[in-house]
C-alpha cells in the first residue's frame, strides 16, 4: 500500500498521528521523544516516523504549509492507513493581547475564509470544531503537567502575506485567539471521514509586538505542546 504522497505500507502508521507542519519538527520529536523508531515516509522530504511513547505506539509526520497540503495528508492517513486520531502541533501568530511567545493554544474551533468547505455542498456555514474527547484529554494532561493553556477559537488563513494589513483586528474583536494555516482543513477532513482531530499550537509571534521566534526555535523549542500531544496516543 502507498499513495502518491506517502510510501508507508499497511501497519506502518499508528492509529494516532501527530502532525507538525515542519517535517524537521517531526524528526525532532522522533529523535527526542520516541523509542524503537522506524521511518515510514520520505516522499517530498515530508518525513514520517512511528515509535513508542511510554509503551504506546504513536506516529508523527510533517504536513507542509496550508489547508490544501494538510487536506491531502490527513485524507490519505485516514482513508488509506486507518488513522483515527490526528493531532496538529503547529505554530501560530497571536491575535489576542493576552498571548505571549511560547504560550500554548488549543483550538476548540477554527474560523477561515478558505473555500475548502465548498466541496461538501453545504447550504450554510459549517462550524469547524475539534473532537471533544481529545480536547478534554489534552486539557487534563496540561493541568497535570502544570502547563497553562488557552482554549478557544483560531483563524485558519489561506494567506500569509495579507495585503489587508488590518484585517486581523476584525477577528481579534470576535475573540479569535490566534492565526495559523491548517486547522480548518484538518477539522473538516476528519469530520467528513469519521476521524477525530485536535490542533495544539504554540505562539511564535504576535500582531501586537515585533517579538518572534526563530526557525530553529520553532523546530526544537515548542516542547510543551509536544508533551501534551504525545500523551493523547491510544
TrEMBL record:
GO terms for biological process: purine nucleoside metabolic process; uridine catabolic process. PROSITE patterns: PNP_UDP_1. It comes from the Bacteria. The keyword Membrane does not apply. Keywords: Glycosyltransferase, Transferase. Transmembrane segments: none annotated. Residues 16-226 form the Nucleoside phosphorylase domain. GO terms for molecular function: purine-nucleoside phosphorylase activity; uridine phosphorylase activity. Its EC number is 2.4.2.1. It is an enzyme of class 2 (transferase). SUPFAM superfamilies: Purine and uridine phosphorylases. It catalyses: a purine 2'-deoxy-D-ribonucleoside + phosphate = a purine nucleobase + 2-deoxy-alpha-D-ribose 1-phosphate; a purine D-ribonucleoside + phosphate = a purine nucleobase + alpha-D-ribose 1-phosphate; uridine + phosphate = alpha-D-ribose 1-phosphate + uracil. HAMAP family: Pur_nucleosid_phosp (MF_01627). Belongs to the PNP/UDP phosphorylase family. This is Purine nucleoside phosphorylase DeoD-type. It comes from Finegoldia magna (strain ATCC 29328 / DSM 20472 / WAL 2508) (Peptostreptococcus magnus).
Amino acid at each position: 500500500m502507498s499513495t502518491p504522497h506517502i510510501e508507508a505500507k499497511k501497519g506502518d502508521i499508528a492509529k494516532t498521528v501527530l502532525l507538525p507542519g515542519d517535517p524537521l519538527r517531526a524528526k525532532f520529536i522522533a529523535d527526542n521523544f520516541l523509542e524503537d523508531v522506524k521511518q515510514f515516509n520520505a516522499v517530498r522530504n515530508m518525513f514520517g516516523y512511528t515509535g513508542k511513547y511510554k509503551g504506546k505506539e504513536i506516529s508523527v509526520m510533517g504536513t507542509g504549509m496550508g489547508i490544501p497540503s494538510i487536506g491531502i495528508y490527513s485524507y490519505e492517513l485516514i482513508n488509506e492507513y486507518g488513522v483515527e486520531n490526528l493531532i496538529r502541533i503547529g505554530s501560530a501568530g497571536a491575535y489576542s493581547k493576552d498571548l505571549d511567545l511560547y504560550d500554548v493554544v488549543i483550538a476548540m474551533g477554527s474560523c477561515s475564509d478558505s473555500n475548502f468547505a465548498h466541496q461538501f455542498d453545504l447550504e450554510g456555514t459549517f462550524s469547524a470544531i475539534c473532537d471533544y474527547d481529545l480536547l478534554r484529554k489534552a486539557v487534563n494532561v496540561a493541568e497535570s503537567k502544570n502547563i497553562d493553556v488557552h482554549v478557544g477559537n483560531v483563524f485558519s488563513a489561506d494567506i500569509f502575506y495579507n495585503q489587508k494589513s488590518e484585517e486581523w483586528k476584525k477577528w481579534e474583536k470576535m475573540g479569535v485567539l490566534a492565526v495559523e494555516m491548517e486547522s480548518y482543513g484538518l477539522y473538516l477532513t476528519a469530520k467528513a471521514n469519521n476521524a477525530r482531530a485536535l490542533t495544539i499550537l504554540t505562539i511564535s509571534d504576535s500582531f501586537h509586538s515585533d517579538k518572534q521566534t526563530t526557525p530553529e526555535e520553532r523546530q526544537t523549542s515548542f516542547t510543551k505542546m509536544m508533551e501534551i500531544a504525545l500523551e493523547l496516543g491510544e
